[in-house]
Specification:
Blueprint: E1 10-21, E2 24-25, E3 34-42, E4 44-48, E5 51-55, E6 59-63, E7 69-73, E8 79-89, E9 97-98, H1 100-105, H2 107-114, E10 122-124, H3 129-142, H4 151-173, H5 179-193, H6 201-208, H7 212-222
Antiparallel strand pairs: 1-8, 1-9, 2-7, 3-6, 3-8, 4-5, 4-7, 6-10
Length: 223
């Protein structure tokens, strides 16, 4: 299954947190829930399948259902994360939130439904995904769903989730991709693989296909 099918009418939130970690290593795993991990400060590494990606502030990874992944945060590189896990469901239940209207009116959602294999795994918060996630997680923390929601709180949760969903789809369809981070990830990987050698900036830049000045800029801006 996938979130991006026209048949999805609702979701059930299964986990959420806003957290600051100085060191963390998660065993590789997968689960039925979709997951968003967004970095607000610092950076972390996420192994998705066989691909390692490095997330910097305002970048996120979206994991569809049953994708194997692993999160790592190094001791010297603390990271602040927003995390949300939710399970797409075909029918609305008492513990789920309707997304039917959003999927009907959102062109960005429909675009992902038409080309599900094209949506990027990693993207940049190009508008308001971070603030949407923060507002939703604040509500979930203040009024835990398992304690039972009254009608007003449930409606507020539905509005906040749908806003977050629209922001997510916008980011995944946006042309503003973290290309700089991809180059930086490649540079860091090259450095790790050649630590015993006599490394030069020019050598690293040539190995990943960019010029030396741009490599300096990426390191100064993101590290």
């Amino acid at each position: 299954m996938t979130l991006f099918t026209p048949q999805q009418e609702s979701v059930r939130i299964t986990a959420f947190y806003a957290i600051s970690l100085r060191e963390f290593s998660m065993a590789p795993h997968h689960h039925e829930a979709c997951e968003i991990m967004l970095v607000t400060k610092g950076h972390c590494q996420v192994l998705v399948g066989e691909t390692e990606v490095e997330l910097h502030p305002n970048e996120f990874v979206f994991l569809d259902q049953n994708i194997r992944h692993q999160l790592t945060i190094k001791e010297t590189e603390p990271c602040n994360l927003l995390n949300l896990e939710f399970l797409p469901t075909p029918n609305l239940a008492s513990d789920s939130l309707s997304i039917r209207r959003a999927t009907e009116v959102s062109e960005s959602f429909q675009q992902l439904c038409r080309q599900p294999e094209k949506y990027p795994l990693v993207a940049k918060d190009s508008r308001s995904l971070s603030s949407s996630l923060k507002a939703l997680i604040h509500l979930l923390t203040t009024y835990p769903p398992q304690a039972g929601w009254d009608e007003e709180t449930a409606y507020t949760g539905e509005l906040l989730f749908n806003r977050m969903l629209l922001e997510l789809c916008h980011c995944l369809n946006s042309d503003e991709k973290p290309q700089g981070s991809q180059h930086l990830n490649a540079a860091l990987k090259y450095i790790r693989e050649h630590l015993t050698g006599n490394l030069r900036v020019q050598q690293i830049a040539e190995a990943i296909g960019i010029n030396k000045s741009y490599l300096h800029l990426l390191f100064s801006k993101q590290l």
